[in-house]
Design goal:
Catalytic activity: N-acetyl-D-glucosamine + UDP-alpha-D-galactose = beta-D-galactosyl-(1->4)-N-acetyl-D-glucosamine + UDP + H(+)
Subcellular location: Golgi apparatus membrane
CATH superfamily of the largest domain: Spore Coat Polysaccharide Biosynthesis Protein SpsA, Chain A
Radius of gyration: 26 Å
Shape: globular
Bound molecules: uridine-5'-diphosphate, manganese (II) ion
Protein name: Beta-1,4-galactosyltransferase
GO cellular component, one term: Golgi membrane
Helix content: 25-40%
Oligomer: single chain
CATH class of the largest domain: Alpha Beta
Strand content: 15-25%
Distance between the termini: 90 Å
Pathway: Protein modification; protein glycosylation
Length: 345
């Protein structure tokens, strides 16, 4: 073979190679652009910014420092302080001052075990309006209960300002977003104010899957209300709740919002776990249906649309105004203006 043709061949191969490299570059560029698009389209972009925003200065020294974390041992898997089934009392004479004086280790609504590092940091979120006596009973029972479980926890009361129709789900979204400004909580427990756990083996920690803590309550003969019921008290990790875009904001009045959350969970192929029935028992403090929380007649319609709406109705679209954040001794009171139903019926 002559020198010239060989050179020519090499040059041609070189060109091919060049072309190939060029093609690869173009492909890589296209991939980069399209992945950019995906990120931009993600409904959770703004949400991430909120979740990762700098923490508000917590007023107490309850948060363990890095040194503390390394010096102290992790709390045991099973707390030695648990007592099992409890005898609950509801004394009409109980006062806030009394409950405060019995819980002096709680500072600004927050508690951290003194002798060991808690296995989880848990934010208890309570949707709230006008249930003063219930809140008092809640604080009276829940503080000692949570302390026996050796948890690092805080109780957040999310108070709906004004007297437009109540919106439990939106208040819980507000609670999640606001609590994350305080601390990077592992676990969120969404908790009706009137439900008191009857057994301290019902652990207020999160699991691999979303957890429903109320199998039975006195008012329903301690039976699960219906298969798939996810109301009353439920627990999700920060990531689980983020993944489903939180609760819907569009359920005004009583009912449906807990089923919507269950559908969101199922759409993400997660499953709901529950403690054994003999443990997951609650007493509901008796009450009538509140004025301002009438049955939501649209709930069945809304529930049918959840697969289409969940991505745009949730944490990423939750708009509200914080009117005040008060760090009371036994809870953090967040008063929020959460607006009103878009279409008045
Ligand atoms: N809630 C409240 N004020 C109201 C209505 C509801 O604080 O006016 C909160 C409270 O935490 C309550 C929860 O929303 O436990 C659920 O409402 P409700 O107790 O009426 O539901 P149900 O008893 O039917 O489960
Ligand atoms: Mn109730």
């Amino acid at each position: 073979m002559g020198v010239l043709p060989t050179l020519f061949k090499v040059a041609r191969r070189g060109k091919c190679l060049l072309l190939l490299v060029l093609c690869l570059c173009v492909l890589a560029w296209i991939a980069a652009i399209s992945s950019d698009d995906v990120v931009k389209e993600s409904p959770f972009e703004d949400l991430k910014a909120i979740e990762e925003s700098p923490r508000r200065e917590l007023e107490s020294e309850m948060i363990p420092s890095v040194e503390e974390q390394t010096l102290k041992e992790s709390c045991p898997e099973r707390s030695p302080l648990l007592r099992g089934a409890l005898k609950l009392t509801f004394e009409a004479s109980v006062t806030l001052e009394q409950v405060e004086s019995e819980n002096q280790e709680v500072v600004g609504g927050q508690y951290n075990p003194a002798d060991c590092v808690a296995r989880q940091s848990v934010a208890i979120l309570i949707p709230y309006r006008n249930r003063e006596k219930h809140l008092l009973y809640f604080l009276y029972h829940l503080h000692p209960f949570l302390q026996r479980q050796q948890l690092h926890y805080a109780i957040y009361v999310i108070h709906q300002a004004g007297d437009v129709t109540f919106n439990r789900a939106k208040l819980l979204n507000v609670g999640y977003l606001e609590a994350l400004k305080d601390y990077n909580w592992d676990c969120f427990i969404f908790h009706d104010v009137d439900l008191i756990p009857e057994n301290d083996e019902n652990l207020y920690v999160c699991e691999e899957q979303p957890k429903h803590l109320v199998v039975g309550r006195n008012s329903t003969g301690y039976k699960l209300r219906y298969k798939g019921y996810f109301g009353g008290v439920s627990g999700m990790t920060k990531d689980q709740f983020h993944l489903v875009n939180g609760f819907p904001n569009t359920y005004w009045g009583w009912g449906g919002e807990d089923d919507d959350l269950r559908i969101r969970i199922q759409l993400q192929r997660m499953t709901i776990v529950r403690p054994p029935a003999e443990v997951a028992r609650y007493t509901m403090v008796f009450h009538k249906r509140d004025s301002g929380n009438q049955v939501n007649k649209d709930r069945m319609l809304l529930l049918r649309r959840t697969p289409q709406t969940w991505k745009k109705d949730g944490l990423n679209s939750c708009s509200y105004n914080i009117l005040s954040v008060n760090r009371e001794p036994l809870y953090i009171n967040i008063t929020a203006d959460i607006g009103q139903p878009e279409h008045a019926h």
